[in-house]
Design goal:
This protein is mostly helical. 72% of the residues lie in helices and 5% in strands. Helix 10 crosses helix 15 and helix 12 packs across helix 14.
């Protein structure tokens, strides 16, 4: 066995694992490792990635084939700055600016970088407070949600690393936070309990994961998509069970409240605040923050416009998601950054966190008619987002293929 080739494959596996831990989608990881392997001298690459496993077979020109498999056990959250830096590293590697023997050190340098923890705290405060109002709460509801969001940040920093898994963390966190919120609602009856809960569980509820799971299934990454969807539903169930346990312990009954009717201008403002919060939480580069936040505002404006014309949930979701994908692709090419940096903040206001929370809450309390109604709205919205994203991706992929074929014919 050629040790040089084996070291190269190990370096590529380290790169793939680091990208997954930072929140890169599986398609990006597969494409990046394939390109880097070919640039490193491989004749062909077979790369298979799911959220918890990486399998890479590298075939060399002399016929030698090397295979490595790695189980990915650690989840590091989403860090867009790291994703950008890994993307830049892959480009530099493929262009020859980074030598294979230096790859491992470069990957470690990026992986060891620590984001500003105060960005996460400020982002959580803005996201929870903004979305509590966005989903029909008052400004006071938003303020209370923001305060509890800071407590969630402390739990994520101290409790999550020692928890058995995300499922157990969601359960324990939702019991503690839910009980605290219920007590506040008892002391201050003018608070809307459900809006506060929805506001800060947007930090925990896996709406983005669920939407991306449906998208992965639609674009052909079936195994990864199904696994992520099941995982997202289990996390949501743990949150709902925790909140219902908190309501039981405090003696509070859970009643969904219609809340406050917002003007379109207020919806756009709170959508922007929420997008800003998630951008900070996901460590978007400072120079890209205005673009990411503006995408969230524009996307919700598109949704409101489509809703006024088309009505329903599915078609407006398709239109807004397609716009978000198109916007992110244009910004990615303009700013030389991964498209995911732009489309996730743009899509955040559309994530069906509220209806997903209601669905799980109704299921825990045995209100099956409401489960069907709210669950249908959740899945319809998620499917609309996935279809809109997949539509733009499919057109972009087809255009790239056509341009590639034309280039080959010209050459």
């Amino acid at each position: 066995m050629n040790n040089k080739n084996n070291d190269l494959l190990t370096g590529l596996m380290n790169m793939a694992e680091a990208m997954l831990i930072s929140g890169s989608e599986v398609t990006r990881v597969e494409d990046t490792i394939t390109r880097m392997g070919l640039a490193g001298g491989a004749a062909h690459m077979n790369v298979f990635v799911i959220t918890s496993c990486i399998i890479v077979t590298m075939g060399m020109p002399d016929g030698e084939e090397l295979t490595q498999t790695r189980r990915v056990m650690t989840a590091g959250g989403t860090d867009f700055t790291k994703i950008e830096r890994y993307n830049e590293l892959s480009r530099n590697y493929c262009s020859g600016q980074v030598r294979p023997q230096h790859l491992e050190a470069e990957v470690k340098k990026i992986a060891d970088a620590r984001p500003n923890r105060w960005y996460a705290y400020l982002g959580s405060l803005l996201a929870a407070g903004g979305f509590a109002v966005f989903f029909g709460g008052t400004l006071m509801d938003g303020a209370v949600a923001a305060v509890f969001a800071l407590l969630i940040c402390c739990f994520q920093e101290r409790l999550l690393p020692v928890s058995m898994n995300q499922l157990s963390f969601n359960l324990v966190c939702s019991i503690i936070i839910g009980a605290g919120t219920a007590i506040c609602a008892d002391v201050f009856p003018f608070l809307h309990l459900d809006k506060i809960l929805i506001g800060y569980i947007m930090l925990l509820i896996p709406g983005i994961a669920m939407t991306n799971a449906v998208r992965n299934i639609l674009v052909g990454n079936t195994i990864s998509g199904v696994m992520r969807l099941i995982e997202a539903l289990l996390w949501s169930a743990a949150l709902a069970l925790g909140f219902m346990a908190a309501m039981f312990m405090t003696g509070d009954a859970y009643y969904p409240d219609s809340g406050v009717t917002l003007t379109s201008a207020m919806e756009l403002i709170t959508a922007g605040v929420g997008a800003m919060g998630f951008s900070l939480m996901f460590n978007v580069r400072k120079s890209l923050l205005p673009i990411a936040v503006f995408g969230g505002v524009l996307d919700w404006a598109v949704y409101l416009g489509a809703d006024s014309i088309l009505g329903g949930v599915f078609l407006p979701s398709v239109a807004a998601a397609a716009f978000a994908s198109l916007y992110s692709e244009i910004m990615a090419r303009t700013k030389k950054a991964p498209a995911t940096v732009f489309y996730i903040p743009a899509l955040v206001p559309m994530i069906p966190g509220g209806s997903l929370f209601y669905t799980m809450s109704y299921a825990v309390s045995g209100q099956w008619a409401e489960v069907r109604q709210s669950g249908s709205a959740t899945l319809t919205c998620a499917l609309g987002i996935a279809v809109g994203m997949s539509l733009v991706l499919s057109i972009d992929f087809t255009m790239r293929k056509i341009m590639g074929l034309k280039s080959n014919k010209i050459g």
